[in-house]
Amino acid sequence: MGTVDAANKDVKLSLADKKPTVVFVLGGPGSGKGTQCANIVQQFHYTHLSAGDLLRAEIKSGSENGTMIQNMIKEGKIVPSEVTIKLLEKAMLDSGNDKFLIDGFPRNEENRAAFEAVTKIEPEFVLFFNCPEEEMERRLLSRNQGREDDNIETIRKRFKVFLDSSLPVIEYYRPRGRFK
Asked: pTM here?
């Protein structure tokens, strides 16, 4: 009988062995990441993995992780790296593709370092959508997707988290020639 650790090791080896092409897609909430990813998928046949969508699906599953994720999102906090990475790894392996747009992750330096350490994958490049905060707020309030985190108070917390946490990730990749 195998252990959970042995099963996780096999998952990591198979993902690293696939040598997938990974593009991190970053930008503030409402900057157009999802919309542009849909265009890239159509043109270039990438698999679009939205970290936010994977987290919301986990919430809907009713799992213990889902409850923890829901509470963190309500507070505008970043979900622990290991939780999001595990969801991303599973989705990458299940997709059957070897080209991925990872939308909304890494959200901070710790996410970035953990993703590269756990998966042994560095992104091909980082696609960054720079959008004014007023425009992102307008888009989020008008998109009417029924998301509980699309309210003005949570949106403003998400902007602050993005500025404080995600911009250092962008600055990490910029001098490494992986920034678009």
From this structure: 0.79
